[in-house]
Amino acid sequence: MDHSEHNETVRLDLWLWAARFFKTRSLARQAVEHGKVEVGGQRPKPSRAVRVGDALKVTRGEEVFELQVLGLSDTRGPAVVAQALYAESDASRKAREDARARRAAERVGYRAPEGKPDKRARRLIRALGDIDAL
Hints:
By secondary structure, the protein is α+β, with helices and mostly antiparallel strands.
């Protein structure tokens, strides 16, 4: 199936790409370099070897995943196969769902303007934009 079964390790950036956390390997490498990924509570390099049983913390946008590595792969496959490579903790899943619900609740009160601002509103917007002009 894949070459990692013989090696028992896979590069971190390659594993993140294969597990479908990032769309490209380059994005996975950048996330690791910018501290969005932790392995065992430490900031790794993109070339760090991932082993079965490693604990990962992956931050993607506003979502934080706490994972346990269950399998290794260096090839990107279907989502069903990718999801079999890791197990997310229940606390992590619940925290992500709560954060998603909170963001949705914050959007509920927002109403987009019905049209363009009139002349008076544009003047007010300009005045607010240049506070020092007052």
